What does this fold into?
Amino acid sequence: MEAWTTASAADEDDGPPCEVILLLATRELFATLHQVARFVASAGRAIQIVVVSSRPSRGELYAAFRCGAKAYIDLNADAAELVRAIRAAVSGKAHFSPSVAQLLIDDIASAEPTSRHRLAGADLSEREIEIVQLLCEGLSSKQIAQCLHVSPKTIENHRYNIYRKCDVDNIAALIRHAIQRGLVAV
It folds into this structure.
């Protein structure tokens, strides 16, 4: 299945005004989120974003909320959960399905007091952890840069520092270390 794209919404100007955009998370979600965020900003009316994902991840979740999503639910949630998510989004409130809420709780509970994590014996900043998670999702540096609203060169600099701190020299080794340290779910 494909995620919604701004082109399909822009072509339907004859229809009723859209208040909610429902996105099905795919590997291209991050690039799509950026396009959707631009569309919502230029729409001139209140549009809320609800993301539905078959395998929620921290990186995906944080990226969705940075791009303006109000609700994030698991694809396995029942129809009533989807209705609650849409109603919450329309009223401007955040909504998480129980599995997504647990992911956030686990993330908060695992944070060290210094709000830095250790990966392969090296301290990583929150931004570097976020980039590690996005890299593990299969995003390119350019896609991550679009999602985080920074230049691709900035992401490449972060990547260099992450590799150096983690004492790895390729993405496969970084993913292995990230899984071993619990920064990404398998």
Summary: Residues 6-108 form a domain with the Rossmann fold fold (CATH 3.40.50.2300). The radius of gyration is 17 Å.
